[in-house]
Amino acid sequence: MPGFRQTRWSEPTVFELGCEGRSGYLVPPIENPIKEELGDIQIFIPERMRRQEPPKLPELSEVEVVRHFTRLSQMNYCVDLGFYPLGSCTMKYNPKINDYLASLPSLNLLHPYQDEMTVQGVLEILHTLSRWLAEITGTYEVSLQPAAGAHGEFLGALIMRAYHMLSDDLSERTELIIPDSAHGTNPASAAMAGFKAIIVPSDKTGCIDVDALKSAVSNQTAGLMLTNPNTLGIFEENIAEIAGIIHDVNGLLYYDGANLNAILGKVRPGDMGFDIVHINIHKTFGAPHGGGGPGAGPLGVSEELAKFLPVPRIIVEDGKYRLDYNQPHSIGKIRSFYGNISVLIRAYAYILSLGAEGLKETAEISVLNTNYLIKKIRELDVYKLPYDSKRPRKHECVFSTKPLLEEKGIRTIDISKRLLDYGIHSPTIYFPMIVEEAMMIEPTESFEKEELDRFVEVLRKIAQEVKTNPELVFQAPKNTAVTRLDEMKASHPKTMTLSWRMHIKGQSNL
Amino acid sequence: MVKVKDAEVPEGLIYSKDFEWVKAEGAKVRIGITDYAQKQLREIVYVELPAEGDTITQNEPYGTVESVKAVSDLVAPLSGTIEQVNTEVQDKPELLNEDPYNKGWLLVIAPSNMEEQKNLMDHPQAVEWHKGLSED
Q1: Is the overall model pTM greater than 0.95, yes or no?
Q2: Regarding the domain delimited by B2-116, which CATH topology (the fold level of the hierarchy) does it fall under?
Q3: Chain B positions in Cβ-Cβ contact with residue A494 (cut-off 8 Å)
Q4: ipTM score of the complex?
Q5: A7: which of A74, A160, A302, B110 fits an S-S bond (Cβ 3.0–4.6 Å)?
Q6: Quick check: A501 and B68 CB within 8 A?
């Protein structure tokens, strides 16, 4: 088993580096004839808009900047380094060809204010991508504009509003139904769009409780937000019946695309009865993820709802691509310009390089990897798989470490920290909230059998350590750039350090 | 005490549309942020104020507050010279949340132009203005 020891620099913040007047670039002076012709540059900026003093920015040479960020990156962990089973986040490997294509000067030097006739190529890419995503999700039309999954959700909730407003019953349609296993963004998006989130429980199989759903549904129901497969990795088998229940009261069915990787190319949300579907490009389609984003959260809708999509929409007229703003029913603009184009180009490259068969295989391998892990982890006889443990899962699974809590007082957080010592990123923990001491594992299709076996072996070792040397687990991690952090201090308003100024003040108070 | 929705708008103060209150104290005035402002900002964790003797200008920023939600400029309701700075709020920013109209005061200034008060809202105007503010 390879050893793991993360680089540990005592790297100051960028504000503490460099010195006054140092810089990494040289701007040529304004040429005299220009100066003589136009006078001082200041005359072009109204006085009230001019800075009184220069901004307090770090002043560093190029090499200092490179060293600083290289050091920081060495203290980081990423998919390129090793196993990253962060459930529901689909931390798959991002093929380098995607980055290569997105960085081509013919794409990354485009300006959003360019005339559309000069950017036909990128418009064609975006239009084609939106057609592919419509095909994959079984929707009629896709907007590429949302900048993240939750942004897509918010747009979806706004479209529900627009739909009910046009039916003239928005004042009645105040409730959005959400299962208790849902991602936390679902109720947040519902609330932001002005709906009340109604939470329905899961049944003992881990699926939405259909009887509870029936009693929650009424003429106040604007719609249902559902993830399928759900966050337990279980496919909602009753989806056809669920769709009927919602549609019978003229509600809309929303598909949270977080778990699309499980069913890519196999089944389509549109065919299951979903009216609105969001896609996480950074999860399913091989673009960078999370804090390293930006992401993209395209939204597909049924034919009936297409008129509500945000503007501009890319349309084809006489063989030319055009940005169309003339959509009277559109909910309007939700983002500056046209979306996170460079992320969308990566998705285009990803789909193009894998093809239809490759996408299907992606889903198959991710599901196979998950069920392989389940078999191996269950053989350890330490970690429990709640909700019908014999039933196969799709792309992810949620184990509980509760037996270790009862036996030795070890919590999931301790297990996850100890995993870091072995060079494995922690699974998602304490989510979904319907599983106690939850450890949500999503291996994706990106890791080979050896890596999966190693993960299981590390879980076995940690269970052993809990018995023989629990302090090792309590005090983990030791091999990382920073050891265990005080989470209370890091997240309580009274102790948070939100800015450089606060940091300086904190230092001077010591 | 007058309350508009959830926000207190005490009588005896005049108000700016930049969410500050002004209290006349003889020839000087005391200023601070309104209850509505602190509720919008949520937990305030840092306050940056100018020093005694500095001057501030009406409608111009003179400091900042940082909360868990945002960093916001403090905008001067009047012009004048700073006579006193509440150093206690710099050590205990939570006073702005707990007691915005008393312990959470920010500056005492000697106004340089009393005419500027015309640009501010008296209490009935401020109550009306608060009614139009969103509660989100």
Answers
A1: no
A2: OB fold (Dihydrolipoamide Acetyltransferase, E2P) (2.40.50)
A3: 43, 45, 94
A4: 0.71
A5: A74
A6: no
